[in-house]
Structures
1.
Amino acid sequence: MRLRTLLALFGAALLVVVGPPLLSTGDGSDTGTQIPGLRFMVPNTPGG
């Protein structure tokens, strides 16, 4: 139903926001951006 679609969209959005920081931890480089996972999308980050 419609609730299932909303839950799927929310889950996908949550995965996009939470996924990259979880996958990119371990290299020890913090660029100072609000979302650490955005460092590979933004070329002009302070740390890189």
2.
Amino acid sequence: MNAVAHGVIESKMYQLNSDTNSWYRTVMLDATPIHRQRALGDVAAPGAFRASDDASYIPRRRRSWSVKGARSQ
């Protein structure tokens, strides 16, 4: 795996640079089936799993994984 495609992550920097009641935030949360922003652990866990021996049955040629909060687009 070469990349984890994660989009925007809820972080202190994100909070400092965005309006918590903004239209964008509302639209994005409504479009995500689990109705919450990604956290760092949501993105780190798939990468750690993929690098572990537990993922040995998954073909190595897969270049990226999307972490979309259950969105299928």
